[in-house]
Design brief:
By secondary structure, the chain is an alpha/beta fold. The protein has a single domain, classed as Rossmann fold, CATH 3.40.50. 46% of the residues lie in helices and 17% in strands. Strands 2-1-3-6-8 form a five-stranded parallel β-sheet, with helices on both faces. Helix 6 runs parallel beside helix 7 and helix 9 packs antiparallel against helix 10. The longest helix is centred in the last third of the chain and has 18 residues. It starts with a strand and ends with a helix.
Length: 216
């Protein structure tokens, strides 16, 4: 049996937005490992619409309050899709965080997160572009496009290899996945419904980066 506390650091997809069960993928992962006999504490640190810049302002204090040295811990980062979005507002008409800055900020967070134990990085997911742009916030429009997400994903994957941090490329894995597409179409084109979060949990749960937390 593995006893571990895991902080899931991210945005709305980490939070589980769109999931009618309110579980998202982090709690599904935790449930699966408890079913295998492990003692897992899940801390979902996802905040809707957060970019790497916004996560960088909060994540360390949140993790230090939860992932204390007396217990084995790990962090799973799932950020970047909001960085790739084009924002049109009174303050900006550009990417929310340009690629170079995004990679630099996330690199700093991943490097520092090693103080808590193993670090994993889950990449961004594809969207259904016919639902775009998103304009839920008055005066702010976010436009997510798969070609931009793909560029960020490739850069993240390259940086993760350089840092020797396990990276899961969900963009490539889900781009032609009918279950993922159906789950987005049943929601808002960006966030999946419960079936999409089931798929995320199953895919991440079978990934060697995740399995090494429990099986090695």
């Amino acid at each position: 049996m593995v006893q571990i506390r895991i902080g899931f650091v991210g945005d709305s997809i980490t939070h589980g937005t769109g999931d009618e069960t309110l579980l998202g993928w982090p709690y599904r992962l935790g449930q699966a490992e408890v079913g295998r006999g492990h003692d897992v504490t899940v801390y979902n640190l996802g905040i809707r619409a957060d970019t790497s810049e916004l996560v960088a302002s909060r994540w360390l204090a949140e993790c230090r309050a939860r992932l204390i040295p007396a217990f084995d811990s790990a962090t799973v980062f799932a950020i970047g899709i909001n960085d790739s979005a084009h924002e049109k507002s009174a303050e900006r008409d550009d990417r929310r965080v340009n690629l170079e800055r995004s990679v630099r900020i996330i690199t700093e967070m991943l490097t520092q997160a090693r103080e808590f134990g193993p670090v994993l990085w889950v990449g961004p997911t594809p969207v259904v572009e016919s639902f775009m742009p998103i304009d839920r916030i008055p005066g702010v429009i976010y436009d997510f496009r798969n070609d931009a997400i793909d560029v960020y994903n490739r850069a993240y994957k390259e940086k993760a290899a350089e840092l020797d941090i396990p990276y899961l490329d969900l963009f490539t894995a889900f781009s032609e996945n009918s279950v993922w597409a159906e789950s987005l179409n049943a929601s808002d084109g960006l966030h999946p419904n419960a079936s999409g979060y089931d798929l995320m949990a199953e895919t991440i749960g079978a990934w060697s980066g995740w399995r090494n937390l429990f099986d090695s």
